[in-house]
Design a protein that fits this description.
26% helix; 9-stranded mixed sheet; Stationary-phase Survival Protein Sure Homolog, Chain: A; globular; two-stranded antiparallel sheet; homodimer
Chain lengths: 256, 256
């Protein structure tokens, strides 16, 4: 009997038609049977949002042997929930999200719809990986990403991942041959310094755009920011137990 | 010279007019100067979403000595960003979020707008606490929550919190005198088993509501779920370093 091909769930946050997810789909089709469900519009910055106060639409875009593709009106996390609970015939062997147009390194993991989809896969006990390219350009070249996704996915399909852990993979925007390799890192300590860009509408009332500048406060050479700045692909293992276990004794002493 | 009163930022995800935030505001006014900025509509389940693809509106609702109140068209995390970067005269001494109408224990920390606001406060290096009552009723009684918030906030204003850690406080829906006390816990291992409730619109096309059943897989007596089931207030320290540090050696050996 022919061994069953791996079943792979693909999603993203830039929307089902983004070049990044097209690159990822191309690679995943060489690895197994693929189900794609991704937002029908850009959902960047949606974090771990789910749709509970409004309704969801699901639209089948394509179905052929070993491949099906859907769009969804909801968030990236909605897409994973819908795939697992409605569309997939069984629990998939892998969930991949991306390739995101733009970095999701360090604290961006928390704002990123791409990474939140991978985290949701992890909550569902599926080995899950988010891929991001450090370029926001629509014309970005995903060739290096495809080679990295190919390598990483082969290893994870062979070795799986520890329970409760998914991977945040960020790829510098340079040619594959210029990359130093893949580095396992910790999340750098960084945040955004926001700026609110105030404008006036035609009625003279104020409205705002949220913008900001990314600030890295971490000079550690074991961080994802260091790796990316030095032509390494960064891989951060991300877990879903948010408990700060090391602070429990301190808090117990505080006698709240 | 009169010592400066603490400056306290208050937000939530149920919206600025929800009874839960009104209860929290009442207590915070006894502790210091208060700035409230909360969503102008319910934002439950928004997780760590931020508004980057559309504009934001900010509306001043009240201003009096030591107190000001705003609504915002964005998410709970937007509210914290706007407060810190536009509305507050200095970094606040405390950020409190809630009181949420409904539990945010265990994995709900990741979907919760209430807790995401507290986490954002933590990213901004502000001691931050999310409060939730284990009742979804609009008529819920917040008397016990007010007493718990009073106790916890006094302790945190006096002792602060470790850098990079905020608190997830969940309060059983019983009278204050029936509570066993406050227990420092870890996040229970749990998730949601989703169900998609399919319906037909007047044109005969399908749409869906995301619903589900909460499943606790963790029988540990050191978890928040155990505490809440046994009439304790649960307090989980939540951190913003999502790196699964313990798995780095395993991943390094995998030679991605």
């Amino acid at each position: 009997m022919k061994p069953e091909r791996p079943l792979i769930l693909v999603t993203n946050d830039d929307g089902v038609h983004a070049p990044g997810i097209r690159a990822l789909i191309e690679v995943m089709k060489t690895k197994g049977d693929v189900l794609v469900i991704a937002p029908d519009k850009p959902q960047s910055g949606m974090g771990h949002a789910i749709t509970i106060n409004s309704t969801l639409r699901i639209n089948k875009l394509k179905e052929e042997e070993g491949y099906s593709e859907y769009s969804c009106s909801g968030t990236p996390v909605d897409c994973v929930k819908i795939a697992v609970n409605k569309l997939l015939p069984r629990k998939p062997d892998l969930c991949v999200s991306g390739v995101n147009h733009g970095s999701n390194s360090s604290i961006n993991v928390i704002y990123s719809g791409t990474m939140s989809a991978a985290v949701e896969g992890c909550i569902e006990s599926i080995p899950s990986i988010g891929f991001s390219l450090c370029s926001y350009s629509v014309d970005a070249n995903f060739d290096a990403c495809k080679k990295i996704a190919d390598r990483v996915v082969d290893k994870i399909l062979a070795n799986s991942l520890p329970e409760g852990v998914c991977l945040n993979v960020n790829i510098p925007n340079i040619e594959y041959d210029k990359l130093n390799g893949i580095k396992i890192c910790r999340q750098a300590k960084a945040n955004w310094e926001e700026e609110l860009d105030e404008r006036k509408d035609p009625m003279g009332n104020s409205y705002f755009w949220l913008t900001g500048v990314f600030k890295n406060y971490d000079s550690g050479i074991d961080t994802d920011e260091w790796a990316l700045a030095n032509q390494w692909v960064s891989v951060v293992p991300v877990h879903i137990d948010f408990t700060a276990h090391h602070t429990i004794p301190f808090l117990k002493k505080m006698e709240l």
